[in-house]
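#structure-requests
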Amino acid sequence: MEKEYLYRKHLRKPGLLFGTIIGFFAVVYIGMLVTAVLVAGDEMNATVIGALIGIGVFIIVLLGLEFLLLYFILFRRFKNINIKVKDDEIIYKNLKGTATIKYDEITKIKFPSLPYIGGWVKIIYGNKQNIRLTVVVENIGDFILDLKNKMDSIGKQDVYIRRRMFSFYKTAKYSDYSWERLYKYTKRIGLFILLNLLVSVLIGKLTTNTSATIATSFLAVFCPIIVYLICEIILAIKAAGKSKGEEFYVPDRDEVLEGKIYKYAFAIYSVLYIIIAFLIGRM
């Protein structure tokens, strides 16, 4: 049965990624600007506000130009990469053309990677030709398992090192699930950042302590991201604990467990942030 694999949508459609980055920057910058206006009071005249707005617009334009450069250098190629897995061959298509790889022509499969962080699979075939697929390919974990099963079925277990393949397989499956969680929780994390900035604005209005306002603003932006990373580390540890190398088994995604971890983590964080912001405001 034929299967098709593509790079993830934020690479195939980088406009979505760029829009998210610009939106995040705009929310943070506007929050910081409003906080600065409330703290400075009469010292923040129209000229200074206009200059700060101009700086923000300049940064957005600069990011736009950088995005265009990255699109032609990097992103454009992901849109055109297509991997089809058939019963007797792999068909790999990119900007340079199409490569057809018979399974019996594969001489080596390598896995340069860091566990649960990233990497790629390198398939060497024919006369030292090769293709590379990174963990940002959608469902790369399923691809690795299909590839292993096919190599085993034709007696070519010697082309890969089982321990390294399993290590990459765990990373690939975790990457699949992690990207799906990121797509799911990005808006919620953005909402937390926005609410935190509103708290910092309120503190800026209630206190004359400029340092306290700046501190709560920085916490508002970076703490939700740190909480997200902590949740991902916890989920990676749990997945690693349930994985079984001898059976080449990695547990499926547990969305109920994920929801509980994220809910409790952000609930605890919200309480701590309000308390810390209040204490900083009284300093």
